[in-house]
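hey m, so remember when u said the tokens were messed up on ur end? i reran from scratch. heres the input so u can diff it against urs
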Amino acid sequence: MGAVIIWTGEVTNLTITGLESLLEATEKNAVLAEESGKLPDNLVRSLHQAGLFRALIPKQFGGLELAFDDYLDIVKRLAQSDASTAWCVNQSAVIAITTLWLHPDVISQIWSDPRTSIANGPPYNCNIERKAGDYTLDGHWGFSSGCQHATWMTGPARLPDNSWRSGFFRPDQVEFVDNWKVAGLKATGSFQFKVNHLVIPESQVVDFRKKPSVTNTMTLLPISLLFAVSFAAVALGLAKGALSDVIKIAQGKKPKWASLRLSDDPDVQRFLGKAMARWRAADAYLASTSNIICNEIKHDLSVSYDQRAQLRMAGTHIIQECAEIVDTAYKISGSSGIYQDETLQRRFQDMHVITQHVQGRESYFGLLGRYAISGNDETGPMS
């Protein structure tokens, strides 16, 4: 893995010891985070100090400018400690890339605050209109992970001509709706949010049809596919954590009416071995796909539909594989896995929220098969 950076007003090296401490803090805070429905303030501060919310922002604007492979590895390791923390970091870090379509002066202003993090959400009924040089925004967005510690909000909205824009505005300008009563990823605090006749300066509104202020691999790749691949990294970290959990359970458990401890049961050993092999295959698939395609895009400064299809396939397959790996770990655990204070139970619930996300839809295999047969892409999932 390449150098990891810590943000302290300037860019310096974060040692592996520092990263390990952050991972330990993430794991230590996982239960409190789930109970409170948000990341604890002390953990958010540590994540800011590590610069993870700005991991993919260029160094010229105070970001880490991590290679995507290095970034995915950190997300994966965070998710092994706690999936909600990794999800919030990833949601913010990836959507942060959209600031790179703003004017360089505005980009610098946004990232001048070391506490900057951005939250967004998919639009429900969102409209934007240009008036007297500014924009007026009315909208309702959902699933805004990390909004409780965000310093900027953003979300797409439709113009009268049916084209789209995304505005950037402050959390104190929105109405939050706490409907995040869910089984998993509880600590992401993914509220809905609304605005009513909010006036936004033109300088804070993005038109993605135009060229970004910064052209690099991250701005060339479609944001939805960056999410697909990076959420797959979250799933991989979560699944690895589930395997570690069930190994600990197996080492100490002898089921009722069973003649063998779980650790000595040949069936358990076989199921676990196959699950570990599937995890390694999925992990290698993500690493090779992201590495090859990012290098190709960096060289060609363009992204093909075939590359888009490969990223979509990797994201979908890995999330689905990880769900089955977690299910295997859960089945092996027996009744030990059903208790709320058991880490494996939290991972089981978190994983099955991830599979319900738009990036995890199993139906994407159908469109990928159609693309392989006909060469016809589908704009939404492939863009």
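this time it looks ok to me. The mean pLDDT is 91. if urs says something different then somethings off w ur setup not the seq
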